[in-house]
Specification:
The protein is of the alpha+beta class. It has one domain. The chain is built from 16 helices and 8 strands. Helix 1 crosses helix 4. The chain is elongated, with a radius of gyration of 24 Å.
Amino acid sequence: MANDQLKQAIIAASKEIGIDKIGFTTAADFEHLRPSLVAQKAAGHTTGFEHQNLDERLNPDLIFDQPQSIIAIALAYPTRMKQRPPRTEYRRGQFARASWGEDYHNILREKMTALIARIKDLANNDTTIDFKPMVDTGELIDVAVAQRAGLGFIGLNGLLITPEFGSYVYLGEIITNLAFTPDQPMASQCGTCRRCVEACPPQALLGDGRLNGQRCLSYQTQTKGIMPAEFRPMIRNVIYGCDICQIVCPFNKGKDFHFHEDMEPDPEAVMPELVPLLTMNNHDFKVKFGPMAGSWRGKKPLQRNAIIALVNLHDHSAVPNLLAVIDHDPRPVIRATAAWAVGELALQANPDLIDFIKQALTKEDAENPEIVQEYQQALTKLTALN
């Protein structure tokens, strides 16, 4: 089968598999991105979650033997829940939309595995054909590949924006030694719009499609240490991720697609009760949150963020639960964040409460200034209430 015919057959097969967008580009390098990436790292704007070998991020031929093409795919995900969880005695947090449903890494891998099988079949099981699928954690830069393959353009928020689905898409790519006629890249359509840049609470967006990853709220919700005080009120009740730069984007207005059953959110999982989350054991955590992308860092960041969300929601009734966390949780970061939260939420102080925090502080490592500072801030707040 001629490659142009094969390309059209692959496009048809992708639709049958349930792939919402597909594009083709060459396996040429992405070296034009090097100066920008080097500058970002030098400025301290990277998160550490990126693939660390820059040469491999930019050169497909370093990670694949004689690559000829890259096939890029996109899957559209839902942005609105069909049903919200019921009101209970507890306040709720929320996960960003990219963590709704089953972990998108698994969904994309399944789609790409199915597509590779179809391509092999269409190519009469030619044993010389090879493939390397990747998603998110792979070497290449997903948005750069997708843009060059014509799936969409890169917005000022650094996300790929598709004409059909906005930026609410998951991306994956497959390197292959098959040669295809490349699709045309799409130029930016942001124009003079800067809504995402202006709406970002920590001003993480640099205004040119790059961001300071260290200031991104999505990154901050995924760290495991003490969250800097500056970012705490900004996350509101979101315990994983951030959707602000997507919500304000005009290209996302009215976008809400429900093409994939495994992407549908479980309301109780994506809007969990915060107080029960504080003492959830590992087994229950894995059962409830394990299938979601937002569980990849474990329960510690989510529990820390839940404590911060309780403060942002002004949930004064949670103080006894926070005191129990300080008393029983084995992790210093969680205890210290809970101590800070008590200082923020307590409506009145009494000597017993102040003595409790002081006594808890004596059990902490005095050589860890970040931990000590949280307790001291709580004591300052409580003392001022007297």
